[in-house]
Amino acid sequence: MTEPILQTTNLTKEFGKLVAVDDVNLEVERGEFRSLIGPNGAGKTTTFNLLTGALRPTSGTVTFNGEDVTGLPPHERVRKGLGRSFQITNIFSGLTVRENVRLSAQAAQHGDFRPTEEFLKRANTFEEVNAHTQRVLDRSGLSGRGEEVADNLAYGDKRRLEIAIVLATDPDMVLLDEPTAGMSAEETRATMDLIHEVLSDRTLLLIEHDIDLVMRVSDRITVLHRGAILAEGTPDAVSEDPEVRRAYFGGVEA
Ligand SMILES: Nc1ncnc2c1ncn2[C@@H]1O[C@H](COP(=O)(O)OP(=O)(O)OP(=O)(O)O)[C@@H](O)[C@H]1O
Known about the structure:
Blueprint: E1 6-15, E2 18-24, E3 27-28, E4 33-37, H1 44-52, E5 59-64, E6 67-68, H2 74-79, E7 82-84, H3 97-110, H4 117-121, H5 125-139, H6 155-167, E8 173-177, H7 185-199, E9 203-207, H8 211-217, E10 220-225, E11 228-233, H9 235-240, H10 242-249
Parallel strand pairs: 4-9, 4-10, 7-8, 8-9
Antiparallel strand pairs: 1-2, 1-3, 1-5, 5-6, 10-11
Helix pairs in contact: 3-5, 3-6, 6-7
């Protein structure tokens, strides 16, 4: 078996007496579309935060691309290729689409927005970043929108820009935290299509509470319940698992 791109070992997060994430051993294979689901309070957001580095675990480790990243802050993980979806508030609304994408590319390369001495010494850097920015705009379907101010974009193009900002960090894997929260059925479908269109060659981990949505899009699903993994498998296998049905639907057979 090939080495998983992302692995957690005995990952645990306690908040006082509450064990929000309880000894989770998760392995995500390179290239797969994995979803992490679970009822309210199952520990999805806490797990997401442990993977991005926003939270430190009480115990256990996170390994990415064969490297222990447990102690690394979020921006270091992004630089190592563990991207995460940004909410719309991460768009700089007064800047153009191109400037937003370029800033993201630069931040991922250099860790901050200030040109360092080393950065200035590399004569090709600006050209490289500009070329990379253009590739990302093309790939995201925004090549005709580069000079538009982000705030003036239509809803669908704002979503494209969010994905472009993630893509600009050149991630091997993207963590998506409820990317369709608050959307209508039609917007949800369009956003999932967009994720497939733009990010299909990356490993994806979607954190989601909408079980119908994950059934449609995932290669494999991991079900969390009370902080622990309850079940794991293909959408068909998971949907037929009696324990999942009990946890998810409160014993009501759908
Ligand atoms: N900072 C915190 N301090 C104390 N308890 C917390 C904290 N964050 C989360 N919890 C608790 O940890 C448990 C897991 O919460 P988490 O938000 O990870 O679940 P979730 O699966 O994302 O739920 P939801 O679908 O409702 O967002 C819950 O009981 C929650 O109240």
